[in-house]
Amino acid sequence: AIEFEKRQLAYKSFLGKMRTSVCSDLVKSIRLFLAGVKMEHERLRKSGGYVSDRRVVDFFNTMENAIFAHVSWGNASDEEIETAREGIEKYVMTRIVHITFAVSPEERKQNEAVDLRMRILETFLTADHLGVPKACRNELVLELAQEELRKINQYPAPVDKIHCIVRACSIIFNVLGLSREGSGADDFFPAFLFVVLKARVKYLWSNIEYIRKYRNPADLMSKAGYCFVNLRSAVSFFQNVDPRALSMTEEEFTSKLNEAKLKLLKNRPEAPS
């Protein structure tokens, strides 16, 4: 929470700096980009196309170089340059999230497939199946971590989305750190799997792709990157789960999977005739 508040204050400070007259050239570049990308979206939308993520990322890289050479950041530290780059990323993505998040038919289809798979598995997989440490089976702990993960859809900026993942992971790490069971990856990942499964995060695949495409790669080399990799690994685990990893036979897993699918289909509302 402290890290998140620190970043929010840094963003406000960045916006204040950008409002000064000396930064008017940077502001003009951002406004021209936003206007251009929105016009491109309208043009491409008519033919079922969408704006390339490469164009957006190239703009971020160009602006990072511009900031590095700008008089306002002449004596800035690497951290201050990174904060400014993050500020531009957040400002821009907040304004174009509607044309960059889950825009391709392929991504939407994959998102639906992951969502269905998770809902099916959630009906019969237990903490025992996933090997969740006893320290992380407290309902309050699990719900707190799940709630942080669900917040990912409240934020339009990749940096804020990824910190929802970090906060969810931190809750698990903190609990494991206080327990006698250890706090290594072998203890963390099973607990995180259970949190991801039970959180029922909408648009989970789309959120992962959105962060992958638009978040500054430098940030993904830190703790945030570690947490993000674990979320991607969790989704991959559930997509390709091996019954042996769940202490289940192939027959038992298949039976429960098919039963859950039938139940889910049966409970689906019928389409109006």
Describe it for me?
This protein is mainly α and 273 residues long. Helices cover 70% and strands 0% of the residues. It contains 12 helices and no strands. The termini are far apart. The mean pLDDT is 91.
Question: Main attributes?
Answer:
single chain, 12 helices, globular
What's the total count of β strands? 0
On the 0 to 100 scale, the average pLDDT is: 91
Helical run tally: 12
Helix content: 55-70%
Largest sheet: none
- Segments where pLDDT lies below 50 for 5+ residues? none
- Tell me the strand percentage band: under 5%
Helix and strand sequence: HHHHHHHHHHHH
Write the layout of secondary structure elements.
Elements: H1 2-18, H2 24-45, H3 53-69, H4 78-96, H5 105-122, H6 127-130, H7 139-150, H8 158-178, H9 185-199, H10 204-214, H11 223-239, H12 250-267
Helix pairs in contact: 1-4, 2-3, 2-4, 3-4, 5-10, 7-8, 7-9, 8-9, 8-10, 8-11, 9-11
Summarize the structure.
The protein is an all-alpha fold and 273 residues long. It is built from 12 helices and no strands.
